[in-house]
Amino acid sequence: MNEKIQEIAERVRALRDIKGLSVETVAKHIGVDVKTYQEWEGGSADFPVGVLYELAGLFSVDLTELITGQAPRLHTYSVTRSGKGPEVKRRSPYQYWSLAYNFQHRKAEPFLVRIEKESEQRPLELNSHPGQEFDYVLQGRMLISVGGHEVELSEGDSIYFDASEPHGMKALGGSPVSFLAIIL
Prior knowledge:
Helices cover 27% and strands 28% of the residues. With 184 residues, it is α+β, with helices and mostly antiparallel strands. It has a six-stranded antiparallel β-sheet, with no helix packed on it. A three-stranded antiparallel β-sheet has the order 6-5-8, with no helix packed on it. Helix 2 crosses helix 3 (34-41).
């Protein structure tokens, strides 16, 4: 399994132990079954970004600490130059880049997300996480499914939704899609 996934799983497990919480308690808190949570914490499956965001709140740490193992240092402002945001290795076919990784006590998690054109040929992979999400399409077209409702979005279109609803995206039109995702 991917080394980054293992590192994140180890950090989550250590923080859960430090807080004195059981696997069952954490799974219930984030709204997943125990088996799924055990797969994530064991490193055999990858945590969705939204779940990591929720766990960061539960453990009173920054999402950056869960993902990178390092605490953010900035508190007045943080600039992320084009192409310089750290890539957050998540799951195929999505690529995420954190856009505010070094800012302390963020109220939201902004990401640049790219979905490769090959995703159009695959079935939608749905996930859910606590909170809300805002997606704004920067380039290309995508299909998004939220709670069983499918919507096509093009450049300049946006969607705001309850992220606890099963949702997934894929590129359309034989080209990749890039969008800004903000998890609240």
